Predict the structure.
Amino acid sequence: MKHHILITGATGMIGKILTRHLMARGHSVAILARKPIKVPGVQVYLWNVEKGEIDVKGLHGVTTIVHLAGEGIADKKWTKERKQKIIDSRVDSTKLLYDAIASSGAPVKNFIASSAVGFYGDRADEVLTEDSAAGSGFLAKCCTLWETAVDRGVSLGLRVVKIRTGFVLGREGGALPALERPIRFFAGAPLGTGKQWVPWIHVDDIVGIFVNAIEDGYFSGAYNGSAPYPVTNKTLTKAIAGSIGRPLWPFNVPEKILEMILGKMSAVTTISTNTSAQKVLDAGYKFQYTRLEEALAQIYKK
């Protein structure tokens, strides 16, 4: 079955690749954006979440919404105002979409939303499934409010899927370039204890999970969007260094130093999230990259 899909956050790394994949598979795609952009073969509609404005023409004929939009978690230091903006950009945008669906009578049947593994907070070595409780701290609070807003779709009769995205590895954006940069300039070292679990995933696999969630009506509820074998920060840092032929410093960057540089946002680099991919595997998704070395080899291939 071919879908007419409306995507928010389509200018990010995942959104760009997902748009291309969906069109290649014969789906029609439209985009909600904050400002006019040109995407070949795609109709672009405008919205302004802060003003509560949306062009409802973008919902015409839409059967599936993929909601990826939200202020970048690590783009700026976490002031009180910045943290509220991060939350509002996710919660308010979700409310705006549902209000538009309800008022326009759009034929939307499926709402596929991004969330994040930050939902679980800092959980040391605990194996985290989708049934695990939400954690504590800002990231967990943000994700909990985000997912609660998304769950409204159930009461509207929609099939709702929430993908708790992990640390996405790709060259077109995401977190990898930021982690790679100091390593490339001979200033790389594991962060904090280096023992914290990092639930990584290759961008092609997170896009693949979204495609499966769109096309397969079996998908419902929350799924961890991470590869089957998480690694520690130390292992990830060493693997990136090996992939680009750079050495690492023989010590870790202490958490206090990270907090001096990043403020409270240092939690992004030091929380430990040992997520299970079993639910998405049971749903039939076949990972292209299950091992970190394979994923990095593809990204950094000559």
User: Anything to note?
Assistant: The chain has a mean pLDDT of 94. Residues 80-104 form the longest helix (25 residues). DSSP finds eleven helices and 14 strands in the chain. The CA atoms of residues 124 and 135 lie 11 Å apart.
